[in-house]
Design goal:
SAM-dependent_MTases_sf (chains A, B); spermidine synthase activity (chains A, B); 288 residues; 12 strands; Spermi_synthase (chains A, B); 34% helix; Rossmann fold; spermidine biosynthesis (chains A, B); alpha/beta; five-stranded antiparallel beta sheet; 11 helices; Spermidine Synthase, Chain: A, domain 2; seven-stranded mixed beta sheet; homodimer
Chain lengths: 288, 288
Amino acid sequence: MEFWYTEEWTENVRFSIKVDQQLYSKKSDFQQVDIFESQELGKFLTLDGLMMVNEKDEFVYHDCIVHTPMCVNPNIKNVLIIGGGDGGTARELSRYSSIEKIDMVEIDELVVRASQEFLPITASKLEEDSRIHLYFEDGVAWVANAKDETYDLIIVDSTDPIGPGEGLFSTEFYQNCYRILSKDGILVNQNESPYFAHNAREMKRAHEKINRIFPIAKVYQAHIPTYPSGHWLFGFASKTFDPIKDAKVDEWNALGLKTKYYNTDIHVGSFMLPTFVKEMLEDAKSSK
Amino acid sequence: MEFWYTEEWTENVRFSIKVDQQLYSKKSDFQQVDIFESQELGKFLTLDGLMMVNEKDEFVYHDCIVHTPMCVNPNIKNVLIIGGGDGGTARELSRYSSIEKIDMVEIDELVVRASQEFLPITASKLEEDSRIHLYFEDGVAWVANAKDETYDLIIVDSTDPIGPGEGLFSTEFYQNCYRILSKDGILVNQNESPYFAHNAREMKRAHEKINRIFPIAKVYQAHIPTYPSGHWLFGFASKTFDPIKDAKVDEWNALGLKTKYYNTDIHVGSFMLPTFVKEMLEDAKSSK
């Protein structure tokens, strides 16, 4: 018998992983949650049939989404994670002793519970670190209700803009993020991919909206082989900091954090984009 | 009816592309040559069941393998391409009026003929540009027989080190490349991928050998979604030039070449590698 998990990257492209067994399968109020075990990727979590995290390359995504803003402002004290139910983003943040509080607002409790049971690699810090406050609430409502200038960093660790993640790609959401960020605040978001047409459309829409609201809005890239095309983007937006000029390279390196993907060279390199991506982002901006 | 091309990235990971039709299928003396037509990637060429080029993303590979060395030394006059039967590397080189001669040594004539018939996007310059001299010979023998200091640039545009490409990953081959390069000579090679174990092994072996022979040996990366993992590497080795410090950024930009992937920012960014890749390369070097 062979058992394969197959993801439709587009109608015409499929990515398949040979699976040893399905460890978990449940429909929450929001989405279908599955966890599989495989030879190649170890255990992996999917939501509505899309890869979220796996033991082999989760470090790439979590390194990029956390250490990039932390290197630009090592004085970040208060952080808001929207989504991030697998716990990997909270885990990387918890390595900074300088951070005082991490609010994590995940709409779907089932994702957190399943990750805590099967993916301690990402979820282990959620219980251990008392600075992490877990709220099973809607991120859109959370940012609408939060007070002005509450956070120094907001990380939008969302699914694609279909299903529960949709509101996290709206102008109103980004406007509230701006309002509740401190005067040096930074917003980082998973910003889809430039390769397949449907991802590229969402990438442009997200960047266009963020760019209208934040004075500084850049995009950086990473190699995440298990996401569609492996060419994945993150957004970096801020009120004051430029992600390259204001990177505190020496200060970050002095922390001595061991990382498997991120380093202060690739911090710079990740903002240097292929011409076709730059052109897509320029297009998005000019369609204001 | 559905018709799918499936590539085994590993025993446990498959990448599949929905195909409209198979345009060409022939076994040469060296390998199985197929060309397919698809919605997502346009036409694509495979050798022994491995993706070589497709109309959607061939520009990434050919931009990286050609413009990176050309930016470091815009005075390159004599070029040797080993492999590159689809013609894409020759096409990009032919855009430099400063280049005087391009010897292209491809072991398998069938690859060139099939590409000329079905992939004019890459192969069109092979007949048009009189500076391109096509030899259907073994690249290993070619470099063994060439005179000292014949070329300013050698591009190893090979398949994986299995089948006809195997000798192009040998120490003897790289030693001859060194010998036949001029005193400012540059060697660029496709250097596999760090992600899946079997690719990573070949990546380390190639780098270790090149690093023993050339005083300067670096690795740079690109996003090529249709190659296994999408995280692909190239080697840059030279007798005198550092790929970053000696890049002639203004000079290259003054040429006004329009490119879809390459630019002088990503030139720099592509040499900034994830920590796990840096560590693999260091391991390879210390196993001398």
